[in-house]
Amino acid sequence: MTDDATSQTPPGDRIAKVLARAGVASRREAERMIEAGRVRVNGRQVLSPALNVTPADAITVDGAPLADPEPPRIWLYHKPAGLVTTDRDEKGRETIYDALPEDMPRVMSIGRLDLNSEGLLLLTNDGAVKRRLELPSTGWLRRYRVRVNGRPEDKTLEPLRKGITVEGEDFQPMTVTLDRQQGANAWLTVGLREGKNREIRRAMEAVGLSVNRLIRISYGPFQLGELKQGAVEEVRRKIVRDQLGLEIVDDSGTATRKPAGVTRHSTRRGPGGKGAPAPRSPSDASKGKRPGQKPGPQVKRGGALSGKPADKSGDTGRTRPSTRPAGKGPSGGSGKKR
Asked: Is there a contact between 129 and 110 (Cβ–Cβ < 8 Å)?
């Protein structure tokens, strides 16, 4: 009997997964909607999420037809310190999803930034894009501006460049540049190709340095540029397609790789560019561009990335993110992009 029931189940994906992909709700929330009787497939009410559906099935939610899956999209988000990168926090702390604009579709983060870290966080509506860009095999370089307490010398940083083991965990070699000493603190630019938990902070502690500010300035070809803290900017879909080698969607509504040999087009560089100035003081950082002036998505072209972040001790409070960046905030580092 079980075999007969299984044989009658159509191929495809679980219905909750399809609802989540269409942006209706998270998969767990979709399961609750199904159990509440709000979903119908081919006119018949569904009460269990243990059902596979195909594109041939007609699905409605609260009587409304299910929209076609959106093409893969990516957003750049300037995460402020003090937010956790998770859907819900068991300690009740504010999450990035609490701070995102209300008109944002359902998105997920590509990688994470810990509570006290800030800077560039990529968001996407597509699970396949998320998984692909998080894979170590992608090999994307992530760059950070790091302020440490202490007076590091090259010999202090050399273990990080060679690769270091911390509490039995091996960290791959990092690129570490000492940019400048500022009183009791020093600014470094750090690049790495993996994303282990609190990797930079732990590695710095292992060589006697304490991190008191950490800003991600780039992730692969994407850079923070002059995106204002708390702001969100969508990457143009042509860039998602061409720069990432993705087709818009496949039959299942998820991202697929473009065939080999497809030419990728360059995109214009964001503000800052090659040879951008050194970190600025808070007063300098406040002299931003006029509101509403919107640079293109911060995407690497050639080898140049935008300049370093404003040198400030921290921001006072958070504002509701806007979908249009305005003014200047922390930007890339050393004229390079992660």
From this structure: yes
